[in-house]
Design a protein that fits this description.
It is built from 8 helices and 8 strands, in the order H-H-E-E-E-H-E-H-H-E-H-E-E-H-E-H. The chain is an alpha/beta fold and 296 residues long. The chain has one domain: Rossmann fold (3-Layer(aba) Sandwich). The chain has an 8-stranded mixed beta sheet, with helices on both faces. Helix 5 crosses helix 6. It comes from Bradyrhizobium erythrophlei. It holds the Pfam family DLH.
Length: 296
């Protein structure tokens, strides 16, 4: 299998989910109309919808080295100098679940922004209907470019009056890997929260020089890792190995592994959603960000 089309551990977790009944799920056309993505599979009918009341929200353009990167932001109305939280998306593009997470963070008092860092491929990932089509696009994103895009997003947030002295990052699935990578890159970052981000990369992916576990000695910010025990793509042993590597490097980190929770347990639009684990993980993230002064 070509390195660009191989199943990475986050994708394995997505494609080996438990069986489900189609009762309680949107039709495909309703899901697309609501702004979700079909490549991730069926969309639950009772997804979480966070109101824009009290928020400024919208689509944005972020200046990057070779053009303008699309993104989505939300912030509390009338609040000066809010903390900044980056949202690193899954492989499915900037769809409604990620936008809702941005709004949830704004309700906590942050200027939250999700950059669409796959934009250079010229396709809307939310419109792609199957994972094999997605993989060559997302797997070819070089880490150096990804990290530069995130730095550009921080610069955009600072220019909008965000307090980048209180900078956090949160990410899910492939975006969870991004959290670990950015924590090893950015000296400005105060804390990160990785939801089921793969600790280990597949071998020989061009542009991915080091996995999160290999980067453990380079971590510049504390990260909390939130994982599912029943994740078929991320064995608990690999999470424990990352934990051990961070401990040996004397890097502050915490981990919580949720019993019986699959990959994507926070993704309230997918069959993998587990409310109890998702709610607890969200609370763990908030406590972590408060501990490190990202959130007040």
């Amino acid at each position: 299998m070509n390195v660009h089309t191989q199943l990475t551990s986050d994708v394995v977790g997505l494609t080996k989910a438990a069986p489900f009944s189609r009762r309680g799920f949107m039709t495909a056309s309703a899901a697309v109309t609501a702004g979700y993505t079909l490549a991730a599979g069926p969309v639950r009918a009772d997804v979480i919808m966070t109101s824009t009341d009290g928020l400024d929200v919208g689509d944005i353009k972020i200046k990057v080295a070779d053009g303008e990167m699309p993104g989505y932001f939300a912030r509390p109305k009338g609040v000066a100098n809010p903390p900044v939280i980056l949202v690193a998306m899954e492989i499915f593009g900037l769809h409604e679940y990620i936008k809702d997470v941005v709004r949830r963070l704004a309700k906590l008092g942050a200027l939250a922004v999700a950059p669409d860092y796959y934009f250079r491929k010229g396709v809307d990932l939310t419109k792609i209907t199957d994972i094999p089509q997605l993989l060559p696009i997302v797997n070819s994103k070089p880490d150096a470019e990804l990290l530069s895009d995130l730095d550009s997003t921080v610069a955009w947030a600072k220019a909008q009056g965000g307090n980048t002295d209180r900078l956090g990052i949160i990410g899910f699935c492939r975006g969870g890997r991004t959290v670990w990578e950015y924590a090893a890159h950015s000296s400005a970052l105060k804390a990160g929260a990785s939801f089921y981000g793969p600790p280990v990369d597949p071998p020989n992916v061009p542009g991915w020089p080091k996995s999160p576990t290999q980067l453990a000695p380079d971590m510049k910010a504390p990260v909390i890792g939130l994982y599912g025990e029943a994740d078929t793509g991320i064995p608990v042993a690999t999470v424990e190995a990352l934990k051990d590597a961070l401990a040996k490097a004397n890097k502050p980190a915490e981990f919580k592994i949720y019993p019986a929770a699959p990959h994507g347990f926070h993704a309230d639009y997918r069959p993998s959603y587990r409310k109890e684990a998702a709610d607890d993980a969200w609370n763990q993230m908030q406590a972590w960000f408060k501990k490190y002064k990202v959130l007040g």
